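Hi W.,

Here's what went into the run:
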Amino acid sequence: DAKTTQPTSMDCAEGRAANLPCNHSTISGNEYVYWYRQIHSQGPQYIIHGLKNNETNEMASLIITEDRKSSTLILPHATLRDTAVYYCIVRVAPGSNYQLIWGAGTKLIIKP
Amino acid sequence: GAVVSQHPSWVICKSGTSVKIECRSLDFQATTMFWYRQFPKQSLMLMATSNEGSKATYEQGVEKDKFLINHASLTLSTLTVTSAHPEDSSFYICSAYSGTGVGNTEAFFGQGTRLTVV
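Here's what came out:
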């Protein structure tokens, strides 16, 4: 079973920041939080991952709470092309041969 | 990021025939590849894990004689759907993971193959 809980769907206005929450209350000390997204009829795309510190890259920012039981993915300036299903996944440390367990994800719809 | 190429992007086949789907890692060596199946409006379901040079490990409920996986090289894995039936119609996705170098921190995904069995 997936170890994360996400809202089923969210809307966001184009140009605004999209904040996608994820609960992972049973996360273990050696598990990372990963975010992927899947645009309709395409393979998933890696977005970002983190352990306990906040992370930022060219696509998004990841904010992890101090107790690590939840996190938020932030798309700073959402565009129509960001419409996709966003998956929050917890997994053991990078470099380990460990399959990803996919939940239902959040369907993010960016509106003009 | 690393590139994983999946071919074909879509295929239509007749019931009873076999279909082969290829997954290639273009700029890194993939010691491990994963095959997923995704039905409409559902999440990805792992079918099998294949390690280069050894037999694939199938998830419970996935018929290994129906979904043949070959991972003979570090850059190519194939999934063959044998004696396909309409219920095998789905979106098949591969991902490649190297364990070192480019693919060390996350798995990279192919673009998926839409299989329709008529």
